[in-house]
Structures are given as structure tokens and as C-alpha cells.
From TrEMBL:
The active site is at E126. Keywords: Cytoplasm, DNA damage, DNA repair, DNA replication, DNA-binding, DNA-directed DNA polymerase, Magnesium, Metal-binding, Mutator protein, Nucleotidyltransferase, Transferase. Its EC number is 2.7.7.7. GO terms for cellular component: cytosol. Gene3D superfamilies: 3.30.70.270, 3.40.1170.60, 5' to 3' exonuclease, C-terminal subdomain, DNA polymerase, Y-family, little finger domain. One of its GO terms (biological process) is error-prone translesion synthesis. The record marks Y15 as: Substrate discrimination. Monomer. Its cofactor is Mg(2+). This is DNA polymerase IV. Pfam families: IMS (PF00817), IMS_C (PF11799), IMS_HHH (PF11798). InterPro entries: DNA/RNA_pol_sf, DNA_pol_Y-fam_lit_finger_sf, DNA_pol_Y-fam_little_finger, DNA_polymerase-Y, DNApol_IV, PolY_HhH_motif, Rev_trsase/Diguanyl_cyclase, UmuC.
Amino acid sequence: MPPRLIAHLDMDAFYASVELLRYPDLAGEPVVIGGGRRHAPEPLPGGGFRYARLRDYAGRGVVTTASYAARAFGVHSAMGMMKAAQLAPQAVLLPTDFERYREFSRRFKAAAAAIAPRIEDRGIDEIYLDLSGLPGTAGDGGRAVAQALKAAVFEATGLRCSIGVAPNKLLAKICSDLDKPDGLTLLAADEIPTRIWPLPARKINGIGPKASERLAGFGIHRIGELAAADPAWLVETFGRSYGAWLHEAAHGRDERPVVTHSEPVSISRETTFERDLHAVRDRATLSALFTELCVKLAGDLQRKGYVARNVAIKLRFDDFRIVSRAVTLPAHTADAAEIRRAAGQCLKRVDLSRRLRLLGVRAAALLPAAEAARRAAALPPRGETLPLFDARAPAGGAESAEEAPLFEASAD
């Protein structure tokens, strides 16, 4: 059996890099992604664009990602936009374009799959690949295959990526981050003491800020110090499961397989408003956004080949309180009108007297569409399907998706 060889491929500053392909004149400039439509570049009569600048931003949005030039000023993902503006006021602010990012995600994953087909999808910009037993990997530890992956991704997208190759997923993910951007890092098991143990403990995926701070309180700052800690003490201090995992992770042990396919638990869409919106005074805006989320969620389901039987909403109010409501449907669906109607029913069960900061819609209890069709074929035929947002009322007297009176607050 060939030795285990796992690669972690991580696209470099993915969203920002995709935008730089569209606006090459911004190469080398600090660029922040996370603005709204009003921050879209404005074409100039003589060619080129007028760009929004971070110093002019006002609102409570957060940074989706930033170019490496912006990161040099301390800007990073999930940072409040106003704070980012203080660090890099001259940075260009661009709106997010998730449809474009998803397209580039599909491209780089297809290019990688043509070389190493055993892939675990970990999100829009990263994948694990099982290189074990691939031709040529025995002699060079996977270097030639990793270089071929980098070249194929660049040819398919014009974008750079960083790859870590190691005996397991945990170590491969650490390695992919060691030489960014455009990095390639290979690690053998016997190199763990010299190359992994000197790194900060937080470099291990699974040790977050709170755990890192707690470890530091015990004088444990580096992975090697964690590896030297008494396993019994770790279990006593951090609990049986997490304490045992900390010991294993510090020694670079990880037996998790590369999972080439897993069924999603749920699919969701949400949006954070640049200003708080009121259920009555901003009803038209909220209703349009709500419908747009449902349409996009239905599109996500249809594109991925799933139908849902559970629809839920998520609301965050101006006091940061989060409320969710869910409903189970009579049958699975990926129809936008049905999703909108079900989400509207959930919304009517919420007190909307406070202003809203965030609105989201989630589809759960998923089933592959083909399996749902097979099951439906054995059932008696259902009534006619209404066109999207038909003004007619469905059977039973419920209002149509478009006309349902939503965002009615109990107080003004």
C-alpha cells in the first residue's frame, strides 16, 4: 500500500484575486472586497474606472476579503469596514460578486480534478486532494504533481494558489499557509519536530483564538510546547475529547480520510444591511430583498440538484438579538415561489417591532432531486404548479408568494 500523501490547495486571496483579473489596473494596490452595489466601479468616458475608496465608506459592513497589499496595513477578513477604513483609508472598495467567485471556484476545482480526482471540497476556495499512489509521487513526495496542479489552476483561471503536501490533512493545511502567496510546501513525517513544533499553536486548524489564549495562560505558545504537555493534564484541563485531540494534533497525527462526497445538511442565503431597516418604513426594500434571497436559494438548490422540505429564516435585530423560525413543507421542493411562501409564513411568527440588521433564508432536510422524483412518481398526481410569484392564491386560500403581506410590525 503506498504511503499516505495528502495535499491542501488554497486559492490566494481568492475574491480579491478574481476582482484583480477584472480590474488589472488595481494590481499592487490595497483592495478590499465587501462593499455594496453602490460601490461598483464607475466607467469613465475616456476608458478606465473611478473606484470607491474605503475612506468614504459609512455603514456597519464587514470585510469579505482583502488583497495582500491591503493585508499589509492590517486589514483582514471579518474586520469591520469602518475599522479597516482607519487602517487603509486609501484602499479601493469593491462590491462582492459571488456568482463570479463561484464560477472561478468551479474552474479551479475541475482543473485540479483532472490531475488528482480524489478531492474533498472544503469551500469556495480550498480543497483537499489524496495524492496517494498517483504516478510519480513515490520519488519526489508529490512535488511534481503539486506543481502540475498549480500550473493547471493558473491555466484555467489565471489565479495563483498555495499547496501543502503532507502525510495527512491536518499537516497539509498547516503547510499550505507557510509560504503564501503562490507557495508550495512539502513535509515528511520525520520533519514535524523541526518544522512544525516551532510554529505558534494557533497554526493548528481547530485551535481558535479562545483556545490559543487559554493555552498561553498555561505557558503553551508553540506546537512543540503543546506536544510536550502531559496528555492526562490536557484531558483534565480541556475535556476528554478536545484534550485528547490537542495531544494528537500537536504530534501531527490525523487519520481523517479525504471525503470525496458528502451530502449537504442545508443551503442558505443571507444578507447584512448597510443600515438598519424598519419593517414598516422600509417594507418595500425588505420585501424585495427577501424575495431575492428566496430566488437565489432556489437557484442554489436547483444548480446543486437538491430539493428541501424544511425552510427557515434568520433575523438579526439592531440589538444584535438573533431570531430564527422554521417550517416543514408537505413535500420537498426547489421552487422559488414555494420557498418564498414558506419563508413568509415563518416571518409572520416574529415580532418585527425592532429594526433589522440581517436577513437570511435556509433550506434544510435536503434530498437529491432525482430521489425525490422517484418517490413522487409513486404518489398520486398533485394539483397544478403555479408560475413564479403568480398573483393567484394557491389552493387552501393562502396568499401567493409575491402578494403575501410581509414585514408588518406590531409597533411603528
